[in-house]
Specification:
The chain is of the alpha+beta class. The protein is 73% helix and 8% strand. It folds into 3 domains: 3-191, Four Helix Bundle (Hemerythrin (Met), subunit A); 221-268; 270-342, 3-Layer(aba) Sandwich (Profilin-like), CATH 3.40.1840. It has 6 helices and 5 strands. It has a 5-stranded antiparallel beta sheet with strand order 2-1-5-4-3. Strand 4 (319-326) and strand 5 form a beta hairpin. The longest helix has 89 residues, at 126-214. The two termini are 82 Å apart. The model has no long low-confidence stretch (mean pLDDT 79).
Length: 344
């Protein structure tokens, strides 16, 4: 697997978990909020209608009692009836609970029965109205109010259930979100360890090997068994180092061969000799080390510019030294050859 693919997969996995968790939580809470708002709005309208019905029932009762006292309360009674029926119609058009329709039907039935008895009592002679109202109308009135309270209680219970379900859904969403976050955090440890093993540790190895190579240790090699970018770079660097060592070995062999050849040539000369580089370094000599060093110092004192292609004669320890420039035609000077003989 490529290194970039490994990194992209690891962090893409974490990002996906976090995005899924955040998106799921946002969608869940949005749906939850919409459901709560809808349920509470619908049930609240039914509760408000029930409260209006109870208030208008109280107005009806006060209007009936005022009629018993020979007051003109028929307009108030008619307005209370109309307001009650309007609230009942609003509740009937807002059925959101399965049992709510049965409760509305009972309210309609009981209101019709109560209204019939009430109107009969109101039209009866004054002496019998109060007694008949207590005996015939009040029980129906109490049943009607109980039905209205039942409508309010049904919607109130529905609101409580919606609240409990909302709490449960919120808890479940929070738990799911926490689970995804925990999974992401738990996944971070192995992903970090894998990143450390496959990337950071190998980058540290590259740094250590580079420092060793710059210090002259050409025997160090990188681990090139991997098939990713670092493995490819390691194989290329290892091939370069192998090639360099091969070239260095070849050059070392050539230098040894050339030194042997130079030594053989110097021994074939009729006189002892010392071979210098243009900078004055002794390359080879058939003299003893002390005499070779003496010749070198004398050459440095006598010849200021070792690149001059002019033969020079020196005397060192009563010996005659001919300093010959070795310069191929058309090329820079290669060396100086000092031929040493007895001083004349």
């Amino acid at each position: 697997m490529r290194l970039s693919t490994r990194i992209l997969f690891g962090y893409g996995y974490l990002a996906t978990l976090l995005l899924v968790g955040a998106a799921g939580a946002a969608v869940g809470f949005n749906q939850l909020g919409g459901t709560i708002g809808r349920v509470l709005g619908e049930n609240l309208r039914s509760v408000q209608a029930g409260i209006e019905m109870l208030e208008n029932l109280e107005r009806q009762e006060r209007a009936v009692l005022a009629l018993f006292l020979d007051r003109d309360a028929r307009p108030a009674l008619g307005a209370a009836d109309e307001a009650f029926l309007a609230a009942l119609d609003a509740a009937g058009s807002n059925l959101t609970i399965e049992s709510e329709g049965d409760v509305i039907a009972r309210i309609e039935e009981r209101f019709a029965a109560y209204r019939t008895v009430r109107d009969e009592i109101v039209a009866a002679p004054a002496a019998e109205r109060l007694r008949d109202y207590d005996a015939r109308a009040l029980p129906r009135f109490a049943e009607l109010k109980q039905s209205v309270r039942e409508l309010i209680d049904v919607n109130h219970e529905a609101m409580e259930r919606a609240d409990a379900e909302a709490r449960q859904a919120a808890t479940a969403n929070a738990a799911l979100h926490a689970l995804l976050v925990a999974l992401a955090l738990l996944s971070l440890a192995p992903l970090s360890a894998s990143m450390r093993r496959h990337v950071l540790a190998r980058l540290e190895e590259v740094g250590e090997v580079s420092e060793a190579i710059s210090a002259g240790d050409l025997g160090r090699r990188l681990d090139d068994r991997h098939v990713d970018e670092l493995g490819l770079a390691g194989r290329q660097l290892n091939r370069v180092l192998d090639r360099y060592q091969m070239l260095e070995a070849e050059l070392a062999g050539r230098r040894a061969h050339e030194r042997g050849l130079v030594r053989c040539l110097l021994k074939l000369l009729p006189e002892p000799a010392v071979l210098f580089s243009p900078s004055g370094e002794i390359l080879d000599s058939t003299l003893d080390p002390a005499m070779s060093e003496a010749v070198r110092r004398a050459a440095e004192e006598q010849v200021q510019d070792m690149d001059e292609s002019v033969e020079t004669v020196l005397t060192v320890d009563h010996r005659r030294v001919r300093l010959l420039p070795l310069k191929p035609e058309g090329r820079p000077q290669l060396a100086w050859l000092a031929l040493v003989s007895k001083a004349e």
